[in-house]
Amino acid sequence: MSKEYTLSFYFDSRRKKGKNTFPLKLRLYHPPSTKEKLFRTGYYFTEAEYNQAVKLQINKGEKKASKERKGEIVEILHVLKSKANTILKDLPEFSFEAFERRYYNKSSKLDVCNYYEDYIKQLETNKKVRTAEVYRLSLLRLKTYLEYKGKPTTEISFETVNPKFLEGFKNYYSDLGRTNATIGIYLRPLRTIFNQAINDPNSGVKKSLYPFGKKTAKKFQIPSGYKKKKALTKEQLKILFEAKPENEYQKRAKAFWFFSYLANGMNLKDIALLTYGDLNGNEISFERAKTRTEQSTAKDEIKVVLPPFAMKVIKEYGIRKNKKENYIFPILSKTDTPLEQSNKIKNFNRFVGQHIKKLAIANGLPSDISSYWARHSFATFAINHGGASMELVQESLGHKNIKTTQNYFAGFTTDVKKKLSESLLNFN
């Protein structure tokens, strides 16, 4: 690595800091790319001090620095350069970015907080505001636990987060009344952060430090809550579809709930993002917001054939200015910032969930129904009564892994099992 860079100091006489002092900066030059970059050191010296300690010369008219002050400055320079050299030697691959991240970190090593903060910025850049909020919450819960343990929260080393630490984290939040499902929400982002650090050649985090896996003495298993199948039966769907809304709010919520159900269980965020360019007659082609990124090139489109009721929802609630770039439904605006868009989608989810719940309760249906039940109900009905295979439902939902689709499926009905039983000896 020694031939790949050169280190020196730069006295920035352009930026006066008071009492005739100026900032000292570290200059890193990379010969292969002929690029250089300056890094602040946090130290300020007078020009005379710089000349005598760094250049080892005294210019005409300058007052000679004391032996003690000169020695102090020389020691500071030695520590700064030593730290920089150590970082550079530890980098498996040279880059200014990797050096900068470690140089401004007090421990000279990347920690858990660094990775959280970088990934949150990345999510926000890709307009994944809600996911960024989940990672912020995860980091906050991690810091809260460390505060409880009396540990520093500004730097969290990967070595610290071992199975014993995670077990304590789980017990702490369990004692506070958090469910296993909630604790899982706190910890899954941390697992992702670990994987990113291990895959980063400049992190210094070894695979042996990875604390997650099936529960053993050396691994910690993230707890998961009881997975209740959130799907309405065929009979319950009929009741909800025929239910008479008590007001316009319930009518609108019912319309969008069934639009989601009929559009392959389309997520409400994806409904909000639909444009007239996605609509061709009674067919919709769209890319799920969950898997969409700014960097993506090849689109993984989902195609939906809308039945008459869904088309009626578009006619009744869609905007009239049907230009290709316009949203179909007046939920979002093209001028929304990512945060504004996220808040509007959150409110849309809350609206549908709140009023479909009231309509369901009034008709003797499950009180914990939400907008997400439409997606599970589609998957279950399609397999039990629509004759769809698990693979077809997987494609319709836009799942990469069929195991995810299986989690959406509420199980075969008694009638389906009865038909199977009766057919086992039917050899005609």
Structural commentary:
It is a single chain. The protein is mainly alpha-helical and 428 residues long. The chain has 3 domains: 2-103, no CATH class; 112-209; 234-419, hpI Integrase, Chain A, CATH 1.10.443.10. It is built from 16 helices and 6 strands. The chain has helices at residues 47-53, 67-90, 96-103, 112-125, 129-148, 163-175, 180-199, 234-242, 248-262, 268-273, 308-317, 338-362, 373-384, 390-397, 402-408, 414-423; strands at residues 6-11, 21-30, 35-46, 279-280, 283-287, 301-305. It has a 3-stranded antiparallel beta sheet. Helix 5 (129-148) crosses helix 7 and helix 9 packs across helix 12 (338-362). The longest helix is centred in the last third of the chain and has 25 residues, at 338-362. It is elongated, with a radius of gyration of 30 Å. Mean pLDDT is 83; it is low at 294-298.
Provide key terms for this protein:
428 residues, elongated, mainly alpha, 16 helices, three-stranded antiparallel β-sheet, 3 domains, hpI Integrase, Chain A
Per-chain topology:
Blueprint (H helix, E strand, L loop, with lengths): L5 E6 L9 E10 L4 E12 H7 L13 H24 L5 H8 L8 H14 L3 H20 L14 H13 L4 H20 L34 H9 L5 H15 L5 H6 L5 E2 L2 E5 L13 E5 L2 H10 L20 H25 L10 H12 L5 H8 L4 H7 L5 H10 L5
Antiparallel strand pairs: 1-2, 2-3, 4-5, 5-6
Helix pairs in contact: 1-2, 4-5, 4-7, 5-7, 9-11, 9-12, 9-13, 14-15
Strand arrangement in the largest pleated sheet: 1-2-3
The CATH class assignment of the largest domain is Mainly Alpha
Q: How many strand units?
A: 6
Compute the average pLDDT: 83
Which superfamily, in CATH terms, is the homologous superfamily of the largest domain? Answer: Intergrase catalytic core
Largest sheet: 3 strands, antiparallel
Proportion of residues in β-strands: 5-15%
Number of contiguous helices? 16
